[in-house]
Amino acid sequence: MPRGRVPAEEDRTVQATAEPPAEEPAERQDRPDARAPMSPSGLLALQQSAGNAAVQRAILARNGDGATATATPSGAKTPDQAFADALAAKDFDKLAVILNSVFTWSDAGDEIDTLDEDQCRRLDDAARRVLPAAGAARIAIFARARLGELGVDEAKQAPGAGYGEMEMEVIKVTDGDPGKKSYEYSMKIKFTPDEAACDADSIAFIQRVRLVDTKTGANKDWDQVNRERATTRQSSIDRIPGKEQGWYGVANDLKDQGNLQTWVRGGGMKEAWMTDAPGAAIPNTTWEFETAAVSRSGPDAGTVYGVITWGFTVDDKLKVSGMPNLTFNKPTSDFSAAVAAWNKQAKGPAAKRTAPNQKDLPALQ
Amino acid sequence: MSGTLVDRLLQDSRDRLLLGQSEAYQDAAFDPESAREAADVVRRLGDARAYHVLMALRSAAPETYEALPADLRAAVLVDALRHAFQFNDWGYLEPGGGYDGPAAAALLETGESAAGALRSLLDDDEKAQMTGSEIAEFARLYRYRRKDFAYRYLSLLLGRRPEFDADPEARDRAIAELTAA
Description:
Number of domains of chain A: 2
Largest sheet of chain B: 2 strands, antiparallel
Number of domains of chain B: 2
Number of strands of chain A: 12
Strand content of chain B: under 5%
Largest sheet of chain A: 7 strands, antiparallel
Radius of gyration of chain B: 16 Å
Structural class of chain A: alpha+beta
Order of helices and strands of chain B: HHHHHHEEHHHHH
Strand order of the largest sheet of chain B: 1-2
Order of helices and strands of chain A: HHHHHHHEEEHEEEEEEEEEH
Distance between the termini of chain B: 49 Å
Shape of chain B: globular
Helix content of chain A: 25-40%
Shape of chain A: globular
Number of strands of chain B: 2
Oligomer: heterodimer
Number of helices of chain A: 9
Number of helices of chain B: 11
Helix content of chain B: 55-70%
């Protein structure tokens, strides 16, 4: 397995002295673990401003019970403990930060060699979400080498390639004209399943949307029902009023609308696809999307086969700027929170549902 | 207080905000006196300028709203449809049916009062835009026009089953049939 260069820092039992850094940037995933005294992106900010040693001190001082970090020797963690705790908590964002900032690269490689395929893929995803590009690239080298050791073909080691191929095409981007014309961002996502890898009878999509004021992060969704199922990051499952299904593009009679093709085993189609064309005349906004191809029925119902994040920003003149389209193996915790919020809404008062018979989405794997 | 609320609602109508974008609409609360004053504003204006005030009364002061003549409510609502910039308040259209939003529901409550004015919109080819994600994709995919919405509501008011074909030319044929009826 290839190994990175060993950095100078070798102190592995340093105590915490750092204050928590500034709030996480709006475009980053919020941390689900409210007990954590410092978020990965916060650690990143610290790493960038104060260096790896400060990050080491901050991470290693975390108590195992989640209490606030202290500067006492008894609160210290070894890198191995920090790694094991993050892995046990399935907190792959934290794992990526720990591997990137506490371990020597040689030791990081050794730790990654203990991971199974799913853990490797989730670590790869997390590294690309929370680390600077260089750190993410180094983690990816180790993670994909480990996948190779586990027998995963090279072509299937890339994010989102484990079960097939995720592709996104931006069809047309139109700027708006204040007071006259909406802006529009027309796109299509395809998932071509590897039928041997996907134990599904049908595959469709679930989409998370986050429409916020770019500067303040305030929720700009005009639909009260959507806002009522928003996560703490102001994301929600993307459906329109009257639709019972959380699956994007699925009608109440379970048929495909015009904006969806569900892949059905034996149905003669090569791929599942969905189209979207978000647009409005709302200035100074960020439209963030996360679209997951998911087994809708069959033995592995609820299994996420691939994820694409995409979106755009709009300025005060309604000019649209696209964001990079990124492919991942598994969704963010914000996506899972949006699914949970959808399901909670489905069980709540009928008047506050998106449709009287709003249906649950499956537990995602 | 009530004057401020009505002023804000009137401004939101001038700005052609969706109801969901109007804080004044969402926060609207009326006491009997302010509801009466708001109803007077609706009577005095009688067109799309009073759209947010009318819809706020419907939501927050239903008794006052229902006391307004159906002809007046229909006039405000049809004029709002005539000048709509974004159509989300009206719902959406799709093959096999559609969804009637709050403005559509209010219009349908007025009964045949709205029929004449709706007929005048059956030749309005202007593109109907939607704010949003999947709903905006519907607008793009099916090439919504203002007359598609007018056709649906007029059909329902006349007790006819509205058809919605994905192809605008097929919809034009249905509109022609309704016009001739």
